[in-house]
Amino acid sequence: MKIIVDIGGCDHPDKMIAGAVNSAKAHPDYTIVLVGDGELIKRNLGGGVPNIVTEHAPDVITNDDSPTRAIRQKPDSSLVRAISVLNESEDAIGLVSGGSTGAVLTASTLLIGRLKGVHRAVLASFMPTGKEGKFVCIADCGANVDCKPEFLPQFALMAHYYIRAITGIDRPVVGLLSNGAEDRKGDERTKAAFPLIKELPINFIGNIEARYAISGEYDIVVADGFAGNVLVKSVEGTAKVVMKLVKEAMTSSFKSKLGALLLKKSVYSLRDRMDYHAYGGAAFLGLKKPVIKAHGSSNEVSSAASVNNVIRMYEHNVVEEIKNGIAATSVDADIEANIEAE
Protein backbone atom coordinates (compact mmCIF):
# COMPACT_ATOMS: atom_id res chain seq x y z
CA MET A 1 0.00 0.00 0.00
CA LYS A 2 1.23 3.49 -0.89
CA ILE A 3 1.11 6.73 1.08
CA ILE A 4 1.75 9.89 -0.91
CA VAL A 5 3.74 12.68 0.79
CA ASP A 6 3.78 16.12 -0.85
CA ILE A 7 6.91 17.97 0.34
CA GLY A 8 6.31 21.09 -1.76
CA GLY A 9 5.01 24.24 -0.09
CA CYS A 10 6.17 23.40 3.44
CA ASP A 11 8.76 25.41 5.37
CA HIS A 12 11.20 22.57 5.99
CA PRO A 13 11.06 19.92 3.23
CA ASP A 14 14.22 18.31 4.61
CA LYS A 15 12.40 17.60 7.88
CA MET A 16 9.30 16.37 6.06
CA ILE A 17 11.53 13.92 4.20
CA ALA A 18 13.29 12.82 7.40
CA GLY A 19 9.96 12.16 9.08
CA ALA A 20 8.72 10.17 6.09
CA VAL A 21 11.90 8.09 6.20
CA ASN A 22 11.37 7.34 9.90
CA SER A 23 7.78 6.29 9.22
CA ALA A 24 8.84 4.13 6.26
CA LYS A 25 11.33 2.29 8.47
CA ALA A 26 8.67 1.79 11.15
CA HIS A 27 6.11 0.50 8.61
CA PRO A 28 7.98 -1.66 6.08
CA ASP A 29 4.70 -3.02 4.66
CA TYR A 30 3.82 0.43 3.29
CA THR A 31 5.51 2.33 0.47
CA ILE A 32 6.07 6.08 0.89
CA VAL A 33 5.95 8.12 -2.33
CA LEU A 34 7.75 11.46 -1.91
CA VAL A 35 6.50 14.07 -4.39
CA GLY A 36 8.42 17.27 -5.04
CA ASP A 37 11.71 18.59 -6.40
CA GLY A 38 13.62 15.44 -7.35
CA GLU A 39 17.06 16.91 -6.68
CA LEU A 40 16.03 18.22 -3.27
CA ILE A 41 14.58 14.84 -2.32
CA LYS A 42 17.72 13.07 -3.51
CA ARG A 43 19.98 15.36 -1.44
CA ASN A 44 18.02 14.74 1.74
CA LEU A 45 16.90 11.16 1.32
CA GLY A 46 20.09 9.23 1.78
CA GLY A 47 19.95 5.52 1.09
CA GLY A 48 18.95 2.18 2.53
CA VAL A 49 15.17 2.67 2.59
CA PRO A 50 13.70 0.27 0.02
CA ASN A 51 10.07 1.25 0.60
CA ILE A 52 10.52 4.89 -0.42
CA VAL A 53 10.10 6.04 -4.02
CA THR A 54 10.13 9.53 -5.52
CA GLU A 55 7.95 11.41 -7.97
CA HIS A 56 9.50 14.53 -9.51
CA ALA A 57 7.30 17.64 -9.44
CA PRO A 58 9.28 20.85 -10.04
CA ASP A 59 6.56 23.40 -9.30
CA VAL A 60 4.98 24.53 -6.02
CA ILE A 61 1.63 26.10 -5.10
CA THR A 62 2.38 28.86 -2.59
CA ASN A 63 0.24 30.69 -0.03
CA ASP A 64 0.19 33.66 -2.42
CA ASP A 65 -1.46 31.66 -5.21
CA SER A 66 -5.19 31.53 -5.77
CA PRO A 67 -5.92 27.84 -5.03
CA THR A 68 -8.43 27.23 -7.82
CA ARG A 69 -6.36 29.04 -10.44
CA ALA A 70 -3.10 27.42 -9.33
CA ILE A 71 -4.56 23.92 -9.55
CA ARG A 72 -5.37 24.54 -13.20
CA GLN A 73 -2.23 26.51 -14.09
CA LYS A 74 0.31 24.41 -12.20
CA PRO A 75 -0.26 20.79 -13.22
CA ASP A 76 3.39 20.02 -12.41
CA SER A 77 3.09 21.33 -8.87
CA SER A 78 3.85 18.85 -6.10
CA LEU A 79 0.30 19.01 -4.73
CA VAL A 80 -1.48 18.38 -8.04
CA ARG A 81 0.99 15.66 -8.97
CA ALA A 82 0.64 14.03 -5.54
CA ILE A 83 -3.15 13.87 -5.88
CA SER A 84 -2.77 12.49 -9.41
CA VAL A 85 -0.58 9.68 -8.08
CA LEU A 86 -3.13 9.07 -5.31
CA ASN A 87 -6.00 8.83 -7.80
CA GLU A 88 -4.11 6.82 -10.41
CA SER A 89 -2.73 4.16 -8.04
CA GLU A 90 -5.24 1.57 -6.91
CA ASP A 91 -3.05 0.73 -3.91
CA ALA A 92 -2.58 4.36 -2.80
CA ILE A 93 -4.41 4.81 0.50
CA GLY A 94 -3.90 8.47 1.41
CA LEU A 95 -2.03 11.76 1.16
CA VAL A 96 0.05 13.96 3.46
CA SER A 97 0.76 17.56 2.43
CA GLY A 98 2.42 20.45 4.22
CA GLY A 99 1.32 22.96 1.60
CA SER A 100 -1.19 25.80 1.72
CA THR A 101 -4.34 24.80 3.63
CA GLY A 102 -6.59 26.47 1.07
CA ALA A 103 -4.83 24.76 -1.82
CA VAL A 104 -4.90 21.33 -0.15
CA LEU A 105 -8.61 21.68 0.65
CA THR A 106 -9.52 22.97 -2.82
CA ALA A 107 -7.43 20.42 -4.68
CA SER A 108 -8.68 17.55 -2.51
CA THR A 109 -12.31 18.58 -2.96
CA LEU A 110 -12.04 19.06 -6.73
CA LEU A 111 -9.64 16.22 -7.61
CA ILE A 112 -10.40 13.56 -4.97
CA GLY A 113 -13.98 14.49 -4.24
CA ARG A 114 -16.29 14.51 -1.22
CA LEU A 115 -18.28 11.53 -0.07
CA LYS A 116 -21.91 11.49 -1.15
CA GLY A 117 -24.04 13.65 1.13
CA VAL A 118 -21.12 15.58 2.68
CA HIS A 119 -21.71 19.34 2.51
CA ARG A 120 -18.13 20.38 3.28
CA ALA A 121 -14.98 18.50 4.26
CA VAL A 122 -13.99 19.32 7.84
CA LEU A 123 -10.44 19.88 9.06
CA ALA A 124 -10.05 17.89 12.29
CA SER A 125 -6.99 18.65 14.41
CA PHE A 126 -5.68 17.02 17.59
CA MET A 127 -4.61 19.00 20.66
CA PRO A 128 -3.12 17.77 23.93
CA THR A 129 -5.24 18.02 27.08
CA GLY A 130 -4.79 18.20 30.83
CA LYS A 131 -5.12 14.43 31.08
CA GLU A 132 -1.95 12.52 30.28
CA GLY A 133 -2.16 10.46 27.11
CA LYS A 134 -5.44 12.02 26.00
CA PHE A 135 -6.06 14.43 23.13
CA VAL A 136 -9.08 16.37 21.94
CA CYS A 137 -10.23 16.71 18.33
CA ILE A 138 -11.18 20.20 17.09
CA ALA A 139 -13.53 20.08 14.09
CA ASP A 140 -13.40 22.44 12.20
CA CYS A 141 -10.02 24.08 12.82
CA GLY A 142 -9.75 26.25 9.72
CA ALA A 143 -11.17 24.80 6.51
CA ASN A 144 -14.59 26.47 6.56
CA VAL A 145 -14.52 29.98 8.04
CA ASP A 146 -18.05 30.85 6.86
CA CYS A 147 -20.29 27.98 7.91
CA LYS A 148 -24.01 27.43 7.70
CA PRO A 149 -25.67 25.86 10.75
CA GLU A 150 -26.31 22.71 8.70
CA PHE A 151 -22.55 22.14 8.33
CA LEU A 152 -21.84 21.80 12.05
CA PRO A 153 -23.90 18.62 12.63
CA GLN A 154 -21.97 16.91 9.85
CA PHE A 155 -18.69 18.11 11.37
CA ALA A 156 -19.79 16.54 14.65
CA LEU A 157 -20.85 13.29 13.01
CA MET A 158 -17.69 12.90 10.92
CA ALA A 159 -15.45 13.65 13.91
CA HIS A 160 -17.47 11.14 15.98
CA TYR A 161 -16.76 8.30 13.55
CA TYR A 162 -13.13 9.42 13.14
CA ILE A 163 -12.36 9.45 16.86
CA ARG A 164 -14.38 6.30 17.53
CA ALA A 165 -12.46 4.42 14.84
CA ILE A 166 -8.94 5.43 15.82
CA THR A 167 -9.31 5.47 19.63
CA GLY A 168 -11.80 2.70 20.27
CA ILE A 169 -13.96 5.02 22.39
CA ASP A 170 -17.49 3.83 21.66
CA ARG A 171 -19.23 7.12 22.50
CA PRO A 172 -16.79 10.05 22.24
CA VAL A 173 -17.88 13.09 24.26
CA VAL A 174 -18.85 15.94 21.92
CA GLY A 175 -19.19 19.63 22.81
CA LEU A 176 -20.15 22.66 20.69
CA LEU A 177 -17.80 25.64 21.08
CA SER A 178 -19.72 28.66 22.35
CA ASN A 179 -19.42 31.67 24.67
CA GLY A 180 -21.23 29.88 27.48
CA ALA A 181 -22.29 26.42 28.58
CA GLU A 182 -26.02 27.16 28.66
CA ASP A 183 -28.08 25.81 25.76
CA ARG A 184 -29.27 29.28 24.77
CA LYS A 185 -25.73 30.73 24.47
CA GLY A 186 -23.95 31.48 21.20
CA ASP A 187 -24.32 33.46 18.00
CA GLU A 188 -27.20 32.79 15.62
CA ARG A 189 -25.29 30.04 13.79
CA THR A 190 -24.38 28.21 16.99
CA LYS A 191 -27.90 28.46 18.39
CA ALA A 192 -29.33 27.13 15.11
CA ALA A 193 -26.82 24.26 14.97
CA PHE A 194 -27.39 23.18 18.60
CA PRO A 195 -30.73 21.36 18.12
CA LEU A 196 -29.50 19.80 14.86
CA ILE A 197 -26.49 18.27 16.62
CA LYS A 198 -28.67 17.19 19.53
CA GLU A 199 -30.73 15.02 17.15
CA LEU A 200 -27.69 13.02 16.04
CA PRO A 201 -26.93 9.53 17.41
CA ILE A 202 -23.79 10.77 19.17
CA ASN A 203 -22.78 11.61 22.76
CA PHE A 204 -23.43 15.36 22.50
CA ILE A 205 -23.43 17.03 25.93
CA GLY A 206 -24.06 20.62 24.88
CA ASN A 207 -22.13 23.87 24.62
CA ILE A 208 -18.58 24.23 25.84
CA GLU A 209 -16.56 27.32 26.70
CA ALA A 210 -13.09 27.60 25.14
CA ARG A 211 -11.36 27.43 28.54
CA TYR A 212 -12.54 23.84 28.96
CA ALA A 213 -11.56 22.66 25.47
CA ILE A 214 -8.32 21.04 26.63
CA SER A 215 -9.55 19.99 30.07
CA GLY A 216 -9.55 16.35 29.02
CA GLU A 217 -13.29 16.03 29.65
CA TYR A 218 -14.13 16.20 25.93
CA ASP A 219 -13.09 14.04 22.97
CA ILE A 220 -14.43 16.38 20.26
CA VAL A 221 -15.05 20.12 20.13
CA VAL A 222 -17.22 21.21 17.19
CA ALA A 223 -16.79 24.73 15.79
CA ASP A 224 -16.95 26.76 12.63
CA GLY A 225 -13.55 27.03 10.95
CA PHE A 226 -12.92 30.60 12.12
CA ALA A 227 -13.53 30.02 15.83
CA GLY A 228 -11.87 26.60 15.73
CA ASN A 229 -8.74 28.00 14.10
CA VAL A 230 -8.52 30.81 16.66
CA LEU A 231 -8.91 28.24 19.46
CA VAL A 232 -6.14 25.96 18.14
CA LYS A 233 -3.67 28.77 17.50
CA SER A 234 -4.42 30.39 20.86
CA VAL A 235 -3.69 27.14 22.67
CA GLU A 236 -0.49 26.57 20.66
CA GLY A 237 0.67 30.14 21.35
CA THR A 238 -0.17 29.92 25.03
CA ALA A 239 1.75 26.65 25.39
CA LYS A 240 4.84 28.24 23.84
CA VAL A 241 4.64 31.29 26.11
CA VAL A 242 4.13 29.18 29.25
CA MET A 243 7.14 26.99 28.47
CA LYS A 244 9.21 30.12 27.77
CA LEU A 245 8.20 31.64 31.12
CA VAL A 246 8.96 28.38 32.94
CA LYS A 247 12.42 28.31 31.37
CA GLU A 248 13.06 31.93 32.35
CA ALA A 249 11.90 31.30 35.91
CA MET A 250 14.12 28.22 36.25
CA THR A 251 17.20 30.14 35.14
CA SER A 252 16.51 33.47 36.87
CA SER A 253 18.79 32.89 39.88
CA PHE A 254 21.31 30.46 41.34
CA LYS A 255 18.65 28.90 43.61
CA SER A 256 16.27 28.58 40.65
CA LYS A 257 18.96 26.78 38.66
CA LEU A 258 19.53 24.35 41.51
CA GLY A 259 15.79 23.67 41.67
CA ALA A 260 15.72 23.30 37.91
CA LEU A 261 18.14 20.39 38.12
CA LEU A 262 15.64 18.55 40.31
CA LEU A 263 12.69 19.47 38.10
CA LYS A 264 14.41 18.95 34.74
CA LYS A 265 12.87 15.55 34.03
CA SER A 266 9.36 16.70 34.98
CA VAL A 267 9.60 19.89 32.92
CA TYR A 268 10.79 17.98 29.88
CA SER A 269 7.89 15.58 30.33
CA LEU A 270 5.48 18.52 30.44
CA ARG A 271 7.05 20.01 27.33
CA ASP A 272 6.64 16.73 25.46
CA ARG A 273 2.99 16.43 26.56
CA MET A 274 2.20 19.92 25.23
CA ASP A 275 4.07 19.48 21.94
CA TYR A 276 1.42 19.57 19.20
CA HIS A 277 3.94 18.21 16.69
CA ALA A 278 3.57 14.79 18.30
CA TYR A 279 -0.03 14.54 17.04
CA GLY A 280 0.79 15.17 13.39
CA GLY A 281 -1.33 17.14 10.95
CA ALA A 282 -5.07 17.63 10.74
CA ALA A 283 -7.31 15.24 8.81
CA PHE A 284 -9.69 16.40 6.10
CA LEU A 285 -12.76 14.31 6.86
CA GLY A 286 -15.52 13.77 4.32
CA LEU A 287 -13.27 13.03 1.34
CA LYS A 288 -13.13 9.78 -0.62
CA LYS A 289 -9.58 9.07 0.60
CA PRO A 290 -7.66 10.09 3.73
CA VAL A 291 -5.88 13.44 3.43
CA ILE A 292 -3.71 14.87 6.21
CA LYS A 293 -2.80 18.57 6.17
CA ALA A 294 0.55 18.66 7.96
CA HIS A 295 1.82 21.80 9.65
CA GLY A 296 3.70 24.05 7.27
CA SER A 297 6.49 24.07 9.84
CA SER A 298 6.43 20.30 10.33
CA ASN A 299 9.52 18.71 11.85
CA GLU A 300 10.55 15.06 11.72
CA VAL A 301 8.18 14.11 14.55
CA SER A 302 5.14 15.84 13.05
CA SER A 303 5.84 14.51 9.56
CA ALA A 304 6.11 10.91 10.78
CA ALA A 305 2.98 11.33 12.91
CA SER A 306 1.06 12.63 9.88
CA VAL A 307 2.01 9.55 7.85
CA ASN A 308 1.00 7.38 10.80
CA ASN A 309 -2.38 9.15 10.91
CA VAL A 310 -3.04 8.08 7.30
CA ILE A 311 -2.17 4.51 8.24
CA ARG A 312 -4.53 4.60 11.23
CA MET A 313 -7.35 6.02 9.12
CA TYR A 314 -6.83 3.29 6.54
CA GLU A 315 -6.50 0.40 8.99
CA HIS A 316 -9.60 1.51 10.92
CA ASN A 317 -11.74 2.12 7.79
CA VAL A 318 -12.46 5.73 8.77
CA VAL A 319 -13.65 6.78 5.30
CA GLU A 320 -16.10 3.88 5.15
CA GLU A 321 -17.31 4.60 8.70
CA ILE A 322 -18.01 8.23 7.78
CA LYS A 323 -19.63 7.22 4.49
CA ASN A 324 -22.01 4.85 6.24
CA GLY A 325 -22.71 7.32 9.05
CA ILE A 326 -23.60 10.13 6.66
CA ALA A 327 -25.80 7.79 4.60
CA ALA A 328 -27.66 6.70 7.74
CA THR A 329 -28.38 10.30 8.77
CA SER A 330 -31.36 11.91 7.10
CA VAL A 331 -30.69 15.22 5.33
CA ASP A 332 -33.37 17.63 4.18
CA ALA A 333 -33.28 17.51 0.37
CA ASP A 334 -34.13 21.20 -0.03
CA ILE A 335 -31.36 22.26 2.35
CA GLU A 336 -28.82 20.03 0.58
CA ALA A 337 -29.84 21.36 -2.84
CA ASN A 338 -29.49 24.96 -1.68
CA ILE A 339 -26.04 24.30 -0.19
CA GLU A 340 -24.75 22.60 -3.33
CA ALA A 341 -26.10 25.39 -5.54
CA GLU A 342 -24.01 28.05 -3.75
Give a brief outline of the structure:
The protein has helices at 13-26, 38-45, 67-73, 78-88, 101-112, 151-167, 188-198, 225-250, 254-273, 300-315, 318-328, 333-341; strands at residues 2-6, 31-36, 52-56, 92-97, 122-128, 135-139, 173-177, 203-208, 220-222, 282-285, 291-293. The protein is of the alpha/beta class.
The major beta sheet can be summarized as: 11 strands, mixed
The coarse overall form would be globular
Q: SSE order in H/E notation?
A: EHEHEHHEHEEHEHEEHHEEHHH
Helix-strand category: alpha/beta
How far is the first residue's CA from the last residue's CA? Answer: 37 Å
Number of strands: 11
The helicity comes to: 40-55%
Mean pLDDT: 87
Uncertain parts: 331-342
Strands side by side in the biggest sheet: 3-2-1-4-11-10-5-6-9-7-8
As a percent range, the share of strand residues is 15-25%
> What's the total helix number?
12
List keywords for this structure.
342 residues, 11-stranded mixed β-sheet, disordered C terminus, globular
Write a structural description.
It is built from 12 helices and 11 strands. The protein is of the alpha/beta class and 342 residues long. Strands 3-2-1-4-11-10-5-6-9-7-8 form an 11-stranded mixed β-sheet, sandwiched between helices. Helix 1 (13-26) crosses helix 2 (38-45), helix 4 (78-88) runs parallel beside helix 5 and helix 6 packs across helix 7. It is globular, with a radius of gyration of 21 Å.
Chart the SSEs and their pairings.
Layout: E1 2-6, H1 13-26, E2 31-36, H2 38-45, E3 52-56, H3 67-73, H4 78-88, E4 92-97, H5 101-112, E5 122-128, E6 135-139, H6 151-167, E7 173-177, H7 188-198, E8 203-208, E9 220-222, H8 225-250, H9 254-273, E10 282-285, E11 291-293, H10 300-315, H11 318-328, H12 333-341
Parallel strand pairs: 1-2, 1-4, 2-3, 4-11, 6-9, 7-8, 7-9
Antiparallel strand pairs: 5-6, 5-10, 10-11
Helix pairs in contact: 1-2, 1-10, 3-5, 4-5, 6-7, 6-11
